[in-house]
Amino acid sequence: MKDSDFTLVNVVINRPLHQKFAYKIEGIIGPECVGSRVEVNFSGSNSIGIITDINPEIKHPLSKIKKAKLLDRVSFIAKDIQKVLEFGSAFYQYPLGQCYNVALPKLLRDGKAYAYESIPALDLCGEPDNKTLSKIRSEEQLKLIDVLKNGAVKRKELRERGFSSQTENALVKKGIAKLTELETEQKKFTDTDLPILKENPPVPNIEQQNAIISISSTKEFGVFLLNGITGSGKTEVYLRVIEEVLKQGKAALVLVPEIALTPQTFNRFYRRFNVPVSSMHSALSDRERLDAYIDMASGKSGILIGTRTALFTPIPNLGLIIIDEEHDSSFKQNDTFRYHARSLGIIRAKQNNCPIVLGSATPSLETIFNVKKGLYKKLDLTIRAGGASLPDFQVIDLRNEPLTDGLKTGVSETLEKEIGEETAKGNQVMLFLNRRGYAHHLVCHNCGHVFMCPHCDNLLTVHKGVSRLKCHMCENTITIPEVCPQCQSDALFEQGFGTEQVSEYLKTRYPDIGIERIDRDVVTSKAQLETRLNRITSGKSQIVIGTQMLAKGHDFPNVTLVGILDIDSSLFSDDYRSLENAAQLLTQVSGRSGRGNKKGRVIIQTHHKDNLLINQLINPDCTYLNIAEELLKTRKNLMLPPYTYQAFILSNSSERINAYSFLNQLYSELSGIAYNYSNLALTPVMSDKMEKQQNRYHFHMLVTCISRKTLNMFLTEVRNIVSRKSLSQDLRFAIEVDPIIM
Ligand code: ADP
Ligand code: ZN
Ligand code: ZN
Predict the structure, then answer these.
(1) What is the value of ipTM here, to two decimals?
(2) Which residue's CA is the closest to the ligand 1 atom numbered 15?
(3) Which of 119, 559, 661, 666 is the most exposed place for a label (fewest CB within 10 A)?
(4) pTM of the shown model
(5) Whose atoms come closest to the Cα of 489: which ligand?
């Protein structure tokens, strides 16, 4: 074959290499194939690569260049995502080929075809008559019939909307519904005669109206902070602005924290629009993820709701991005490509010249800072939609409380009395404790021996229900020992209470009241979460005890009392973000009280009644934004982000000495170079807060700089220096820009 029968392309490959590689492809292909997959032979093995450029300029003659096989003529990485990944690769110092790898669904990475498989669905066998309907006792089954009346629905969607497979099967057994396969025929959401809306939305209040107009009248790039207190109707604003975008034939992308992906959230979108909605989250199989990806890429769905990686889904004609709970740390990826979906979301909106809305009741200090700089426009929702009022705050000074068994378990006498009174009135109480397990750790009363994880520098937590000690770092467990391995004493003492213990205690105090626990130990699936949430919504459970799983997205109108059991542990942390996080979490949790037409209360237990943060929280004239302003002042004085920019240079290895000496050697090289960069500081090597994690030893250096650009230049040099070294197999090196977790 002649050279002119080939097209020259640049390709990136899923390897820790920053270069692109030239290959030639048989036939003539055009720019539509940028982002397509190719199979290449790379250093002896077959790999999947992605085309980044067509006909790039290269020095070698074409005859010297290896051939690659074009796998499809579909671009998986649309132009806007390509730009986002190029930006992300440079900004986060992560190889472009590996960024692409994070962006692609696994099946595409593995070389599977870009095509649907049949989609299992459920359909009615025909319109059920009244006689059949009157025989059905289960409300869930009736609800499901109602949903199916509009046509077959994917089983995956039914699960997301909170229907269990038991409910589905019951209808099948009764001959009312049947399993079927949904057609995979491609119809764009814009090619339909159905109206966009399926239901009549509530009339927005004046603040919502202002926000809707501001966002919808923006036809170009712009960043909005929708700062609305909990229950102020932010989601309603999202739905309205999405409606406007759909009217223009454009699609919308909504990113939410994993924890907020509840049936309540999904149902609001599915119920509102006739336009197909797709979703992406960790509960999907690889197949379902690819199907959702195709739904969006082909224009079949008009709305994508998903967690952080959904950001990389191709969406033709993207008209709006929403990042709900923008302060949530789950938008940051903490390994491989360590990006923040909020930062890259803004880049994607810029590429599409469309608005992006960051929504939160408790915005991150970074976002508030950007509002102050005039980069983002703030829109406020200050009143609760539907007329509910904000809760009153009250502090229980634990120093004045008798040291009862209850208090040792986290519930003071006063709080216990309040719980009793509220539940007697038929109201619900929600208790919040961000520590799961029965007891924080186990200590020998005789010799002081504590039980540590053999793989991590971490105390083991006592889990009574399963009779195990569990490491919350690596989830490794051992049976609860009967005697101390050091002194053989059987006086083993449980130190510090967790949700399991509180729940056990309350059961002894209120044997006749339904008590629900919500934490990662008892809620291990969406279905379980759903069952538990249903027991709360239906009023079967009157007392709820939970971790931060409880803080978001759930709307329980009968909760009139929220109790914060242990705020003190977050007041004294060496992580400079802990006060910001505590203020956010407490504001969010408090927002669970008084959502309906009953007035709510929040009770905080503390040994530190005079603490500034506590006083700010209970002061009705002090908003979260006031607290944030104070925290920002401290950050400025201490030259901490967002007033400076930070990055970690990280290493870890199964040999402690290797991880340390590699980084220390790098430190001596870098400290000579760092002087060339103005206003940049580099710390010596330190071990991570938890040095040993799953048998690997972790070390870091911290770089701080007042210029984003200088920091980036320095990190690029660091990366180049490291790439010239040959690292031992076992050593891992990484750069983390804008870290959130120490
Ligand atoms: P947020 O997202 O800020 O927590 P939501 O959008 O979930 O708030 O609204 C809280 C509750 O108020 C929901 O039940 C919602 O249906 C209702 N709601 C929102 N906006 C309005 C409105 N304009 N009129 C009546 N009810 C509303
Ligand atoms: Zn002992
Ligand atoms: Zn461990």
Answers:
(1) 0.98
(2) 233
(3) 661
(4) 0.90
(5) 2
